[in-house]
Amino acid sequence: MPGEPKAYAASHPAVAPYVEALLEPEDTVLAEIRARSRAAGLPDIAVGPFDGRHLEVIARAAGARRMVEIGTLGGYSAVCLARALRGDGHLHTFELEAAHAEVARESLHRAGLLDRVTIHVGPALDRLQDVEGDGPFDLVFLDADKASYPDYLAWAERHLRIGGTLLADNVFRKPRGREMADVIHAFNERLASSGRWRATFLPLEDGLAVAVRVA
């Protein structure tokens, strides 16, 4: 109705096809990564084409040179982020499964970005200490086990520079059980009200949190 504020999300069915035709967000390099990851038996949980474009554009806007990604999978999002690196910038990405990391390594090689990315294999909470000497970081992207999101956030609060950008995928995803719902809500609530962050939540299907560290 006239005078009412605009809705939180664009819901008209014509919007997505219109933007997809404009941007063509999944180029041949990214499409090949998606297809090869599926063929290798990786779970079909990589970021979507629009998500990948959001990551690249936000990382470029942030002028990020030192990045951390938690949750590599087949390397789709790592390629999107690495494309945005400035100058001699570098991305550290963490993957639990060695087999997934090998797929990601091939993805980065084919994209011509392997020399700008280091893949760390093993539990991220154990391995993050290996890169702390390269901080403070300009950007941290979370897309791994949701149960550890509060722990990853605590790490980012210590190792992301003031003015640095935090991105977190799946913050609206329907969780399995009340306990996981509480974990995701606690993560979102800390971003929204702790005073350490200035945050917003992009209304994608699974939700993308975007926050700047302010304290």
| Highest CATH level, the class | Alpha Beta
Structural class by sheet pairing and helices? alpha/beta
Listing every helix as H and every strand as E from the N terminus to the C terminus, the arrangement reads HHHEHEHEHEHEHEE
> What is the total number of structural domains?
1
Largest sheet: 7 strands, mixed
CATH architecture: 3-Layer(aba) Sandwich
Instruction: Give the termini separation.
Output: 40 Å
The whole-angstrom Rg is 17 Å
Helix content: 40-55%
Extended strand count: 7
Residue ranges: pLDDT <50 for 5 or more in a row? none
Strand order across the largest sheet: 3-2-1-4-5-7-6
Mean pLDDT comes to 94
Q: The CATH topology, please?
A: Rossmann fold
> What best-fitting shape do the alpha-carbon axes yield?
globular
CATH superfamily label = Vaccinia Virus protein VP39
Count, helices? 8
Proportion of β residues? 15-25%
Structure description:
- The protein has 215 residues and is of the alpha/beta class.
- It has a single domain (15-213), classed as Rossmann fold, CATH 3.40.50.150.
- The protein is built from 8 helices and 7 strands; from the N terminus they run αααβαβαβαβαβαββ.
- Strands 3-2-1-4-5-7-6 form a 7-stranded mixed sheet, with helices on both faces.
- Helix 5 (98-110) links the parallel strand 2 and strand 3.
- The mean pLDDT is 94.
